[in-house]
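Q: How do we represent a protein-ligand complex in a form that can be generated token by token?
A: Start from the inputs.
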Amino acid sequence: MSEEKLYEFRRRWLPVYLVLLIALALVTVHLVAMYFFTGNTNYANLAVLSCLAAYFFYSGFQRLRRIRLTRRRVVELVKCTECGYSEERGHSAGDYVFKVKGRCPRCGAEMRVVAIYSVKLEEGKPAAGSAQIDFFTSRRGP
Ligand SMILES: [Zn+2]
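Then emit the structure tokens for the protein with zinc ion bound:
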């Protein structure tokens, strides 16, 4: 299963598991209460069954919650052909390496795509990867 699909799966099923877990917990409490009020052992048997079902959903819920995903974002490195100035931008569809991409803000020469790659996005955090840019610019500077 791909990471995107796994993420979708988790996002869709986590609330379902939670709702079923709460519902089964309530049913179990209700059955136990009925057993104590009526003394009917059928209620006790059903309470044990619903308790087992609740445990099943609880363990499934915990398993889903433990899935940690690394989401990725595709970026491209655009570099000036004259002065070596470079910047990282979000990848747009149809871009390829060596494609001319606008003018250099520093000297006005052509900017070309020199690399396309993906960076990890930690869950709930904005894009990382500025350290990589510094590495590129300092090594390939004029
Ligand atoms: Zn330039």
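Residues 80, 82-83, 85, 104, 106-107, 109 surround zinc ion (CB under 6 Å). Confidence is low (pLDDT under 50) at residues 125-142.
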